[in-house]
Structures are given as structure tokens and as C-alpha cells.
Amino acid sequence: MKVAFAQSAAISVDAALRSQAIAIAFSKNEKEDFELEGPARLVSAIEEHFELNLLDELTFFSPTGKAGELFEIPVSDTDSLTERIFLVGLGDKGLNSIRLAASAIGRKVRGKSTKVFCACVNEITELKAFTISLSLGSYLWNQKTDKETLFPEFCIATENQSQLDDAVVIAKAICAARDLVHTPANIKNPAWLSEQALSMGKEFGFNVKVLAGKELALFGGLRAVGNSSPKPGPRFVELSYVPRSAKKAVGALTHVVLVGKGITFDTGGVSLKRPYDTMTAMKSDMAGAAALLATVSALAQLQPRVRVTALMMCAENALSGTSQRPSDVITHFGGTTVEVINTDAEGRLVLADGLAYADKNLDPDYLVDIATLTGAATLGLGRQYAAMYTRDQLLADSLGKIGTESGDKVWHMPLIDEYQDALRSDIADYNHTADKEKYSAGSVTAALFLEKFAGNRRWVHLDIAGTARSEVDAGENPKGGTGFGVHLLTDWIMSL
Ligand code: BES
Ligand code: ZN
Ligand code: ZN
User: Fold this and answer.
1) Does the CB atom of residue 342 touch ligand 1 within 6 A?
2) Where are the beta strands (DSSP E) in 319-362?
3) pLDDT score of 433 more than 90
């Protein structure tokens, strides 16, 4: 990863002049006049130093005031390093607009060694969104060997050091999830993913337990999918976070259990994906598990008074002599039998084991799964909203709100009981792929299937097939893995 994380800087002209670029924000007021934003005295001191009237300069560009609009003013001066001033539009100044503005600055200097001093925001909530999006916009991942990839440096004029530090923790976690998603599947097999978890556990101070081989005897779904690629085979990775201050009174804490789909590559198996080019994006089919690993790493640094257990269900869905067959019947953790219809619907099989394990062994107060589960979620909602399923309206409301504020937006979808019929099997407890012709609603029927394994828990399912990956560089997202879910889950758990 090549990305910069912000540091705080003094709210002073001297600090500003030590950077190659200074970013200042603007917006339109009710009278349709443009105004400069950010620490007011600092902004006018910068204008004085360069003998500039920034609003006059701005008018020259005929701005619209749209969030993320960015203009560049060259400046030169013998006693500073500053070569340019960026004027960035803050739109309606809502959090979404702040994110667009910050990511536009990040994108502008992505892959360059420019140091940017930002004098754009005042409020704490804005500072958090701004700091995170600044880094996300500058994120770059590649394995090119032809030239050294450079990366920028960011300083933010603020006195809120601790808020800035917390925002950087989240930004780093999102970028860590992106890195995991970008890593190609020839490197990223389930064993590699479990090793990443072990090393992040060591680095940030949370517990990691890995099960493999015979230890997975009861995990029929994970084995059925993962044994298609027996070397190294599937892994069950359990991450446990307990706050440092509450090691003894753990039982009294709210317990959140998260379950993530960690399919390191999804060929579809015997029901091979067609057309074949739909397979190329499938190294990202572990984005749910990656989001959990990153979230737990962030929590271990932020130390909320909650207990969190995250289950990464890691397997490759390969086409091989040991692949499962359409018509196989498998026994999940807890004993439920399932008739496998289409081996490309592998995500729900590995998640079913994780949910049943959580329900039977972990006594969760909240049970949340996150998965790149169905193409149907993308068909229904596109790439901006994840599909959220739960029967708990309060939980849906709170995740909906935190989603909008964090930028990881979720849409509450219905668990339609009329479609339960789709899960009927003549020979097993359930059939795992609903009859598509008759029901459509592939994301809904997948959610209904998962619900069978969640017991009576306060359960939420997040289908992130659309949001985990971006087709283009846009806003804070790079083309590729977005890190969706890390910000949402971290903020939600911090709010409990
Ligand atoms: N990993 C895919 C879902 C997916 C598709 C994620 C596109 C991201 C982008 C999942 O395993 C899958 O193949 N689902 C099938 C289910 C079907 C066979 C019932 C689907 O959505 O077509
Ligand atoms: Zn699949
Ligand atoms: Zn899949």
C-alpha cells in the first residue's frame, strides 16, 4: 500500500509554509456568495503572506461550489516551500461533502511525494470524516516494479490531536482491508489469510485462534467448499477482542460476534462461473473477512468497553477433483443438513457454519455477518449501498444512521417470508440455492437461508457484493477493494 496518514499541525502560517501545498476549502452561503472555510484567522494570514485575495482568485475559475471541486493556484515565495494552494469545494458542508472534498485532495496528490497542509475544517465530526477520506483518496496499491511509487504527506491544522489519532486508526484499518482484498489469490490462500490474522493479532494485541484440517470436522460447509483446494485447505479464524481494562469482568460486557465470508477465490466450483470474465474480480470474495480483521485491529487500538469475537470463514472455491458436486448433502456445524444445488453459492455454506458456531458456543448479544454474497445485491442496489437484512428495526435504524455518517451506506431490505418455500428440499433440511426462475430475489433468499443458522439472536446480515469493490476510481474509492464495512462496524461498535 502507498498511502499517507495525516498528522496534526499547529494552526499557524509557519506550519503551513513548511509544505509544498496548502489546501483551503470554500463553500457557497445562502446568498449564493462564496466563502472560505477552515480556521478563519489562519486562512487570512495565509492570504496576507502570499498577498492574495483567495476569493478573487476563486472567481477566476468560475466555480460551481460542488463538493470535491478543486482548483490549483500556483504561488511562489522565497521564504517558504509552498508551491501551490488548492481551493476545494465543500458543497453543502454535510459529512458526505466533506468526504468528497478530502478525497479530492488525496486523489490530487496520490502517487506524488507532495506534502499538503490542510486548513479546511473546524468541527470535530468534520475533522474525523476529513482525515479518513484524505488518506482513502490517496490510497494506491500495485505490484509494479518499473518505478518507485511515491506517496504524499498530510498535515491537518487542528488542536484535536486525540480525535485525529482515532481517525487515523480507522483510516489505517480501511487501507489494511483494501490491501488484503487487492492481494492476488495465488498469494492469498486461506492459510496466508490466517497468518495475516496472527500477525495483526500480535501487532495490535488481540487473540487469534486458527482451526485447520481435522479440527474442522464439525464445519461441514467450510470443508465442502474449501476441500476443493486441499493444499492448504480451509481455515476457521477466530479473533477475540477484550478491552484491556476489563479482563476480569468480561462476562458483564456486551458481546458482539461478527462472521465474515473469506473466499480467497471464487471460481464457482463445478458450477463454474459464466461468462468466465466474471471470475476475474473474485479475489475480492474475502472482503467480508478482511473487513472483520481490520475492524478488530482498529478496536484493539480504540479500546471500546465491548467484547468482540470475529469469525473469518476462509476457503477457496476451486474447480478440482475434490470439489463438491451439485446434489451433495452436507452437515453444517450444529447438525443441520443442506442439499447443495449450485456450487457457486458457496458463501452461504461457509457462513452457515460460522453463524451456527456463534449461536451455539459464543452466546452473542449481537450477531452480524458480512459477505460478498450475491450478484443480486448489486443488481438491486448498485455499488453505493450494501443490502442489510434484519428483523430488528432498532438495530437497522442505528446501522442505517451510522452507515450514512461513515459513508459505508446500508439499505434495510425485507426478509420476505413468502419466499421461505424456496429453501425447501426433498432430501435435506434445506436446499441451499432457491429456485431462481420462480423467485428471483437472490439476495433475499440467501438472507433467509442464513437466518436458519442464526438461532434467536439479534442478527444482521450485510450483503456487500456491490460495495466491496469499485469498478472505477471515484470519491474515496480506488478501482478495486474499497474496505467497505470497516468504518461502519467500528463506529457501530464504538457506539454500543
Ligand atoms: N461471490 C459471489 C457473489 C458475487 C458476485 C460477489 C459478483 C461479487 C460480485 C457468490 O459466491 C455467488 O457466486 N453467488 C451466486 C449465487 C447463485 C448461484 C445462487 C450469484 O449471486 O449469482
Ligand atoms: Zn460463488
Ligand atoms: Zn462467492
Assistant:
1) yes
2) 329-331, 337-339
3) no
